[in-house]
Amino acid sequence: MLKLFTLLSLSSLALFAAEGADKTLNMNAVIMFFIFIVGTMGITKWAASKTKSAEDFYTAGGGISGFQNGLAIAGDYMSAASFLGISGMIFLHGFDGMIYAIGFLVGWPIILFLMAEKLRNLGKFNFTDIAAYRLDEQKIRILAAFGSLTVVTFYLIAQMVGAGKLIELLFHIPYAWSVVIVGALMIIYVTFGGMLATTWVQIIKAVLLLGGVTIMAGLVLATTGINFSFANLAETAVNLHAKKDAILAPGSFVSDPVASISLGLALMLGTAGLPHILMRFFTVGNAKEARKSVVYATAFIGYFYLIIGVVGLGAVVFLLSPEGAVFFKDGVIDMKNIIGGNNMAAVHLSAAVGGDIFLGFIAAVSFATILAVVAGLTLAASNSIAHDLYAIVIRKGKATDAEEMKVSKRTVLVIGIVAILLGFAFENQNIAFMVGLAFALAASANFPILILSIYWSKLTTRGAFIGGFMGLITAVVLVVLSKTVWVDIFKFEQAIFPYTQPALFSIAVAFIGIWFFSITDKSARAEQDKAGFEAQQIRAETGIGADGAVDH
């Protein structure tokens, strides 16, 4: 079955590639791309043979080391938004685009110091296990499932748009078909390989991406006139960019202080609420390895974001020079007319500094990046539906591993179709911006419940359930009423909500709602919730009772 699906997907790409041959198809890039697809499918086939149980499917059997998991987390986190989106933002708006890189990175110390060890000690398959440790399992899992699915949906949009534009650029095929092909590959990949395949492709992808951006940045800095001087690079970029000095000044992109604070909160707190990232802490053997994972991941991610600044400014220098006209429609240098949109700035830069072969490598790695992240997201979403809703809520914990995995794999198919449809709707959005919205939802729905369930003894089921849904609904409604959806998608003239980022408001609503409905809860269930805190705290700190507990 896997071979058949793979063959069909590759045949589709080859067919479209043949049709687009008259548009100067870049064969070197195409060959590199196919090599990668075949390679990942090989890993998936190997992983499928090793995946026998729900534990294997969701957590790779807990057999991943701290270093491997750190690389895999970095691979998961260095998504299309990080590579294509942030470099595209720096290309458009200047160094203000780095606010996303800084925000993405700042969230990791929170996870390291406040959550990593406790996550591993308290959970089994996903972060919902932690929130449900002492609270009413049924209600909490319903809430967490809705929160996770919403976050994953918005995150998926960004990845599908990035992948669609990349395939469109490489194969000269319509964007819509590009998104369909990506969706099909994603479904195959997750359905058959599970977490083991996802982990190893993320590790390989992380190494290739870190190597690729390092080489790209090195080639940019080695250019005559720049001579490995960041000051020279910045000066050249200022001279070529339409905004001139403004590209190095703060506020050109996020000028409103409310929007800036809202975005910063979303990126900082959202990291600790991303279901596909939190899932990774259950793939290691114990809490010690979980801590190691975060340390390694932070180091790799931090290095990557330093390099992205060079890549973004390098795109300005190379693409806005006279020689860069080939990367714009009709050969006219105009920021709005870059082939493939601003998300493709880094891909065009690879062609400018390294030629066709390097373009092929970066394109293949970019696609690998997207495919691995999409797989992790889809796995997290299917986990929420199959494990939380089906196995625990509907079947009351009586579902077998086989039944749970069957539901999970069917869910993957549904999520894949939804992702494809949303990829159509949000075609022209910057993918880093879309991920920023996903982070805002994670910070509003998942993070408050997770952090308070670990640290606040007075949290009750009623408080978590009502407050959590208040945060989630507020975030979704404000996103819909903002310019992103109300104007860009629905085509209304003016947005009802004046800011593009809802996090400042929705996070406040979530925390206040959880606090208020917890302290006013005088039910018997509330007393039970509070009484369970001490036992939870002991296990969280010591690991006693958790699988793979170690001496501290």
Explain the overall architecture.
The protein has 552 residues and is an all-alpha fold. It has one domain (2-426, 434-542): Up-down Bundle (Sodium/glucose cotransporter), CATH 1.20.1730.10. The protein contains 22 helices and no strands. It has helices spanning 2-19, 27-50, 54-59, 66-77, 80-93, 98-122, 128-131, 137-171, 175-221, 230-240, 257-270, 275-278, 287-319, 345-394, 401-425, 431-445, 447-455, 461-481, 483-487, 503-519, 524-531, 533-542. The chain starts with a helix and ends in a 10-residue tail after the last helix.
Q: How would a textbook summarize the main sheet?
A: none
The figure for the number of domains is 1
Name the CATH architecture.
Answer: Up-down Bundle
The CATH class name reads Mainly Alpha
Q: Give the structural class.
A: mainly alpha
Q: State the CATH superfamily name.
A: Sodium/glucose cotransporter
Number of helices: 22
Helix percent band: over 70%
Order of helices and strands: HHHHHHHHHHHHHHHHHHHHHH
The multimeric state of the shown protein is: single chain
* Low-confidence runs: 1-5, 548-552
Number of strands: 0
- The proportion of strand residues reads under 5%
Average pLDDT over all residues:
81
Give the CA-based shape.
Answer: globular
Any idea what the radius of gyration is? 23 Å
Cα separation of the termini: 47 Å
Q: Could you name the CATH topology?
A: Sodium/glucose cotransporter
